[in-house]
Amino acid sequence: MKFDIKEEDLIIKPYKTEGPIYVRSQKGKYQKLRRYIGWALMLAFILIPFIPYQGQQAILLDIGAQQFRFFNTTLFPQDFTLLAWIFMAGAFALFFVTTWLGRVWCGYTCPQTVWMMMFIWVEEKVEGNRNKRIKLDKSPMSFEKFRKKGLKHLAWLSISFLTATTFLSYFVPVKELYSNLVTLDWSGLIWFWVGLFAVCTYGNAGFLREKMCIYMCPYSRFQAVMFDKDTYVVAYDEKRGESRGRRKRKDDPKQLGLGDCVDCNLCVEVCPAGIDIRNGMQYECINCGACIDACDETMDKFNYQKGLISYTSEHQLAGQKTNKFRLKLVGYGFFTGLVIVTMLIWMNLRVPIETSILRDRNALYRVNYEGLTENTYTLRITNKTQNTLNYTLTLLEDSRFVLSAPQNIVIPAGEMSQFPVTITADGYDLKQKVTDVRFKVQAIEQPDIQIIKQSKFYKP
User: Fold this and answer.
1) What InterPro entries does the record tag this protein with (predicted)?
2) Predicted confidence band of residue 18 (pLDDT cuts 50, 70, 90)
């Protein structure tokens, strides 16, 4: 038996080959909600670095100084336990939302979707609606086509540059960043990162678009693991819609043997991923609800009941009730809350001071001219607050030990200071060769900021 296999059939095609997706503009309650959320997120992204707090930038991730400021809290690399808690809370929250409402994160709040839809909006304003854009791309190059394409890409590049600059303002003080931009006094490093982020934004939102969601985002691949028959997803009611077919508004679909789907294809044209929701649930779907708004608009025109495409569950489509309090959903919600509460408790118990006691490595002890035993230490104190503080150092031991240290230790905000400390004792008063000693460091202005560190005292 021979098989007629062509050479082109053996070529693996990793990407779709049907060309670019021309997204049709769509109005409706879900698209209005998506736009409101998108504008709110973009405004927050732009304005947050400009929020002042006590004369400083409220949120600043200063990598050079290894300090991460969030209003009145300054975090240092040793506080990165908080980052683990944030990632855990975000992961459980994502699992919870996905199990409950499917990929609404992708459709409404993902930065890739927000910027992609913004670039599509610019494209529509410059080049026209979907049909005009298709016609423009098929037409030969002319001055008008060059003008529109040039204006579109100029707008895209401007948005990308603003996005990159805004992103960098979370890591560089915003006043310094923008004042140096006006005077063209950016360093080479700043220009590199702004250029890199601008190119990434321009490429992702302008060209890759849905390919980022379909081929590069891992979330689209493992999301189905969190779905169940009670998860709300965008779905097409096949029983009600089939058989689909075109008809006039006054036609009776029952007499024609047709379902409610008029096969207008608008659900495909408005989809930013270019899929046909009528083919069933697909991992490319980002749950943006554009096809729902388009279908409801068509149902209105034909005086049919809305909801042919809707946010629904598999159980609901089968005529059963959706279980809103199933064990998996409750479990994800519980662990999300537990991690958030644990993180808040950790932050509340966190003391904004870091102290280390290092013994003299050259000698365990020495005996002075009075016959007393001395141990030398190096004390390091890091002020993790945003104010200059005065600290005192004391020993939590009896009178057998005498501490020699500065009486008042002044440390500026976010800085570390180190200095030598000596403890003296009469060896005859100590029964053991090694005795535990405890140092207490306390802020004078804020007595609740204190820390106790333990070390060892050695005698001959």
Assistant:
1) 4Fe4S_Fe-S-bd, 4Fe4S_Fe_S_CS, Cyt_c_oxidase_cbb3_FixG, Electron_Trans/Redox, FixG_C, Ig-like_fold
2) low
Q: State which amino acid sits at residue 432.
A: Q
Question: 136, exposed or middle or buried, with CB in 10 Å at 0-12, 13-18, 19+?
Answer: middle
In angstroms, the CA 423 to CA 430 distance is 13
Quick check: 397 and 414 in contact, CB under 8 A?
no
Rounded alpha-carbon distances, angstroms, from residue 206 to 42, 103, 271, 448: 17, 22, 16, 53
- Strand partners of residue 353: 383
Report d(CA 139, CA 133) in Å as an integer. 10
Closest CA to 386 of 63, 75, 81, 52: 75
Q: What is the pLDDT of residues 173-220, one digit of tens each?
A: 999 999 999 999 999 999 999 999 999 999 999 999 999 988 888 887
**Gap between the terminal Cα atoms of the chain:** 95
Query: Tokens in use for 314?
Result: 């598999």
Cβ neighbour number for residue 237 with a 10 Å cutoff: 19
Give the type of residue at 250: K
Alpha-carbon gap, residue 291 to 302, rounded angstroms: 17
To 10 degrees, the CA torsion angle through 59, 204, 215, 265? 120
With beta carbons less than 8 A apart as the criterion, state whether 302 and 310 touch.
no
DSSP H or E stretch at residue 113: helix 111-127
Distance between CA atoms of residues 90 and 10, nearest Å: 42
What global pTM score does this model have? 0.83
> Could you give phi then psi for residue 458, rounded to 5 degrees?
-110, 145
Ordered structural domains, the chain, with CATH? 10-50+102-319 (no CATH), 353-458 (2.60.40.10)
Give the C-alpha separation, 209 to 20, whole Å: 10
User: CA nearest 411: which of 456, 445, 376?
Assistant: 445
